[in-house]
Amino acid sequence: MEKIECKKVSISTRQLLDCDNGVWRGGKHVIETAATPLANQPSPYIKGTYDENKIGAVKKIAIKSVHNGKDIAVFLEWESPTPNLKIKDINIFPDGVALLFPFKNIDKTPINEMGTQDYPTNAWYWRPDFDEKPKNQVSHGLATSLYTEKSSLVSNSKWKDGKWRVVMARPLKASRPGERTVDLAPGKSIGIGIGVWEGANGERGGVKAFSKEWRALVLEA
Amino acid sequence: MAVNKKALTDREKELAKAFEETKEMLRKCEHQVGMVMDLNKCIGCQLCSMACKTLWTSKEGREYMWWNKVNTMPGKGSPKDWEKMGGGYKVKFGGKVMEPVRGKHPTRKEFGDMWDYNYNDVFQNEAGKVHLQARNQVDGSEPDWAMNWDEDQGAGKYPNSFYFYLPRICNHCAYPACLDACPRNAIYKRDEDGVVLIDQDRCKGYRFCLEACPYKVIYFNFVTEKSMKCIFCYPRLDEKVANACARQCTARVRWVGYVDKPDSIIYKLTKVWKVALPLHSEFGTNPNVFYVPPLAPHRLTPDGKIDTSKPRIPRGYLRYLFGPEVDSALATMEKELAKVRNGGRSELMDILKAKDWHGMFGEFTKDPALMERKPPKGAKFTRPMP
């Protein structure tokens, strides 16, 4: 399985949250993304009226991750010619990005179904209109994702020159009552996937681009 | 278009079957309530709209919504030109195949946005300098549409101009396009009465339902970022109180009852007398709101004499709205009307006159003033997921 290294650094979380911090220069991992398969859409309407070739406007996304022993930070960068910042009208959709993690055995957790009843997934979901407080969500398969009541995620984001740059950060261990989420630890690795929405292309929900396979996020001890 | 022609994997087939079964479950109901509205009696007073607004849509992001509205026909309605926005189904092989039709999102301005007035500017300036002006909340532009913007405009030329009112709510369809569209299974029909509801806890505001609904009666709440629509006053029905729009109607236009119970007034008007028809049945969703089509007064010749050579409202237009069945519905009404004019009696005309309003609401005649205002203990507002 392709590995994404998450190096240990001695940089404060506040500094890591700066998209322009030198730590985010170079060494990024590029992941190709593709349209979510129409065959898996839990909506006869979407299945019957959308064109798979027109879904998934974002074709690749760059990722880099570090931790400082206490918090983990993930930097994401992708091309988006025009930023869609908020739901200004009924026909306008905001851009977005999400990281997906399996709670349990990666081999039994299908990434293209966001898990199953027995093998759920955890998503960290950023949108420009979430006021830099990304949502934590749990999914037991397609059509079942729900936000948890609480979320430890914070973010910082910038859109410039046709590109989104987003940093999401969180304590390595964050699960607590009201926040069901994956706990991470230095020296351990976890599966990771990415979903990305291009608002200008009407993308929301299952209509998006995603990384078709799990990668391993390996946290340096 | 649609799913690539590649062969589906076994897992994809398994998932598709499970999704279909879930939709089937969300669609099924023991009974179905419905409404009949008599377009011969509607006077376009919007009391129904105001009753609904006062009760359901006065705050928390619902201010711009009209879950009930009265459009003038012919007209563009609301959202503007909704009849041309797509959605619904192409029904094939007698209903065995329901092919979804891609729809378009209405915009907030096409519905008619909320307006703000420049009261402060007018108040603080010298008299006559600034005049009162309305501005759309969404972008400060000058309002150019609203739910009754083209009220009473109609069509035709004097003295044979014509229009009629078309009150509109959610049709609580037997085959709701919104339910099928929702990838989160947030939309379902209530078991006991088939009322279509959007579970606000499950809705994530993706707005596929707004695309798919061919009647464009779903709104988007910009505050909660969830989709909302007419709930057929289900908390009132639970207490045997008729819908606010029906109860408030001064012209006694609306009947409420079960579509599937032979002793109900809705059954009588739709299945026995067959004078109440769904709007745009070609959209394929099988609405449970029905309309008694308008007969309209006779045409006049240029010298003011009655002209019976053709109807005032072109029959083609009524067929466009209510399908070819409109011909026999109007013929039945004319026949029954003639009976009464000749001194006879007609059960149908007695129903349509609605002298005693109690008869209009079946079992839903309880006085709203006597309603329990708190939700009953143990009331379930969402359906458990499979």
Describe this structure in words.
The complex is a heterodimer of chains A (221) and B (386). With 221 residues, chain A is mainly β. Chain A is built from two helices and 14 strands. Chain A has one domain: Immunoglobulin-like (Sandwich). In chain A, β7 and β8 form a beta hairpin. Chain A starts with a strand and ends with a strand. Chain B has 386 residues and is an alpha+beta fold. Chain B folds into two domains: 306 residues, Alpha-Beta Plaits (2-Layer Sandwich), CATH 3.30.70; 34 residues, no CATH class. Chain B contains twelve helices and 16 strands. The longest helix of chain B is centred in the first third of the chain and has 18 residues. The interface between A and B is large, with 30 and 44 residues.
Descriptive keywords:
heterodimer; A: 221 residues; mainly beta; Immunoglobulin-like; 2 helices; B: 386 residues; alpha+beta; 2 domains; 4-stranded mixed beta sheet; 16 strands
Short synopsis of the structure:
The complex is a heterodimer of chains A (221) and B (386). Chain A is mainly beta and 221 residues long.
Taking all residues together, what is the mean pLDDT of chain A?
97
- Domain count of chain A: 1
CATH topology of the largest domain in chain B: Alpha-Beta Plaits
Summarize the largest interface: chains and residue counts.
Answer: A-B, 30 and 44 residues
How many whole angstroms does the radius of gyration of chain A measure? 16 Å
Got a strand count of chain B?
A: 16
Determine the fraction of residues in helical runs of chain B and give it as a percent range.
10-25%
| Count of the separate structural domains of chain B | 2
What low-confidence regions of chain A span 5 or more consecutive residues with pLDDT below 50?
none
Low-confidence stretches of chain B: none
User: Between the first and last Cα atoms of chain B, what is the distance in angstroms?
Assistant: 31 Å
Content-based structural category of chain B: alpha+beta
The CATH architecture category of the largest domain in chain B equals 2-Layer Sandwich
Mean of residue pLDDT values of chain B: 94
What's the architecture of chain A, going by CATH? Answer: Sandwich
